[in-house]
Amino acid sequence: MSDVYKVIHPNKYFNDYISLNVRPDGRKFDEQRSIKLNANAISNADASALIKCGNTTVVCGITLELATPKAEEPDHGFLVTNVELLPLCSSKFKPGPPSDYAQVISNTVNDIIKNSKCIDLKDLCIVSDKLAWVLYCDMVCLDNDGSIIDACITTLITSLKSLSLPAVSFDVETEEVKVDISNKTLLKVTGLPVATSFAIYQSPESNIVLTDPTTFEEEMCGGIGANLIVCWNQGLLCGVQKYGGGNIPTESQKNLLQVAKKRSKLVEEVIETCLS
């Protein structure tokens, strides 16, 4: 009966729960969902990871390639991130070119990784102006139930932490390249950036901040995704991005930063445990 009520009167259904200081799935406003993480989930990828956060499921695969560095950055390699939202993960997405929302997700993930400075692109350069590694990081959403950026960042960082680069020799005179897959070195990853999503619900009394929102909660808060993304990197705030939604109450601003910081420590422990 409640499912029918949710479909017919979604706003009233949601507000009835919020007025009782509880969310439709029984969580508190600042409570996150459980996380399950598995490294090396794809056998034919150079590194991979699979995450399940609530019902949101994302798999990441990294493939390596050699290329010539850019002329303006001769001593830098490449880190290319891409997020795919297939029709499989939600009925909102259709086959064909990436939607605007999928491109926003990809750009946000790329910005978070870049701003966190967890990867030094100079470490990917083999011979300046001649040869460098390209890391193609493809994330595919298998089930989208909210907070998609959180899942993408976690599975990407886990994959990067488990990635090993083969030894490469380059003959300057003949430009011959030799790759020794029997001799690999772990990629240097500085820190563990963790993103935390929030949705801002404009209730009749005041605006309420919900941690780790589901897709239903994101929709009720006036967007197709989370309204706010906060990223911490081992105790350092490295990014805050806001996408529409209502204003955040002054008393809630400091609290949500602390909630995100606390969550980042928990996710860091999950990643380290998974990799160990």
Automatic annotation (TrEMBL):
UniProt cross-references to InterPro entries, sorted A to Z: ExoRNase_PH_dom1 (IPR001247), ExoRNase_PH_dom2_sf (IPR036345), Exosome_comp_Rrp42_subfam (IPR050590), PNPase/RNase_PH_dom_sf (IPR027408), Ribosomal_Su5_D2-typ_SF (IPR020568), Rrp43 (IPR033196)
Organism expressing this protein natively: Pieris brassicae
Gene3D superfamilies referenced in this protein's UniProt entry, alphabetically: GHMP Kinase, N-terminal domain (3.30.230.70)
Homology family: Belongs to the RNase PH family.
A single MF term (Gene Ontology): mRNA 3'-UTR AU-rich region binding
Domain Exoribonuclease phosphorolytic, chain residue ranges per copy: 31-166
Name the record gives this protein: Ribosomal RNA-processing protein 43
Subcellular location: Cytoplasm; Nucleus, Nucleolus
GO CC field: cytoplasmic exosome (RNase complex); nuclear exosome (RNase complex); nucleolus
Keywords: Cytoplasm, Exosome, Nucleus, RNA-binding, rRNA processing
UniProt-listed GO biological process terms: exonucleolytic trimming to generate mature 3'-end of 5.8S rRNA from tricistronic rRNA transcript (SSU-rRNA, 5.8S rRNA, LSU-rRNA); nuclear mRNA surveillance; nuclear polyadenylation-dependent rRNA catabolic process; rRNA catabolic process; TRAMP-dependent tRNA surveillance pathway; U1 snRNA 3'-end processing; U4 snRNA 3'-end processing; U5 snRNA 3'-end processing
Location (main, coarse): cytoplasm
